[in-house]
């Protein structure tokens, strides 16, 4: 990953397809992979605009991992089923370190940027796992 872009994995891959997040950007990035449920025709753009619970009813969560600038995530994500997938980063612009999560805090986590989510800046990629 670089700031607001994932390397292109290719339009069609074969299963299993494994992904490791290497962050070559200046901000914190995450790699979330979801698979559109069979029979769902809602576009990725429409799914991303839905409330979270409605969107997640139409996709299968594959996994999530994060990496700070200059680091490689320790978790590898693997897509094993044929179908249509999306890789996406929801981290807010301006986040450069892993936010500190204090359960007693009343506001957002410390260190969280206040810009738009990275996917709105172009940090998303569609791909297909062939049968």
Q: What do you see in this structure?
A:
This protein has 131 residues and is mainly β. It has helices spanning 44-49, 52-56, and strands at residues 12-14, 17-22, 29-36, 59-67, 72-79, 83-88, 124-130. It has a 5-stranded mixed β-sheet with strand order 1-7-6-3-4, with no helix packed on it. The chain is globular, with a radius of gyration of 15 Å. The model has no long low-confidence stretch (mean pLDDT 92).
TL;DR of this structure?
8% of the residues lie in helices and 36% in strands. It is mainly beta and 131 residues long.
Fraction of residues in H or I helices: under 10%
Strand order of the largest sheet: 1-7-6-3-4
State the end-to-end CA separation.
Answer: 27 Å
Which consecutive residue ranges, at least 5 long each, have pLDDT under 50?
none
Sheet with the most strands? 5 strands, mixed
Provide tags for this entry:
two-stranded antiparallel ribbon, 36% strand, 131 residues, single chain, mainly beta, globular, 5-stranded mixed β-sheet, 2 helices
Secondary structure topology:
Layout: E1 12-14, E2 17-22, E3 29-36, H1 44-49, H2 52-56, E4 59-67, E5 72-79, E6 83-88, E7 124-130
Parallel strand pairs: 1-7
Antiparallel strand pairs: 2-5, 3-4, 3-6, 6-7
């Amino acid at each position: 990953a670089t700031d607001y872009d994932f390397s292109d994995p290719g339009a069609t891959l074969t299963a299993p397809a494994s992904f490791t997040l290497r962050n070559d950007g200046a901000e914190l990035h995450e790699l979330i992979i979801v698979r559109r449920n069979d029979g769902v025709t809602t576009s990725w753009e429409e799914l991303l605009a839905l409330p979270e619970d409605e969107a997640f009813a139409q996709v299968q969560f594959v996994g999530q991992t994060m990496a700070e600038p200059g680091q490689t995530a320790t978790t590898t994500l693997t897509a094993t089923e044929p179908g249509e997938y999306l890789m996406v980063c929801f981290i807010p612009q301006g986040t450069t370190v892993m936010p500190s999560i204090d359960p007693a805090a009343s506001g957002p986590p410390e260190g969280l940027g206040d810009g738009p989510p990275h996917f709105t800046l172009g940090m998303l990629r569609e791909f297909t796992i062939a049968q």
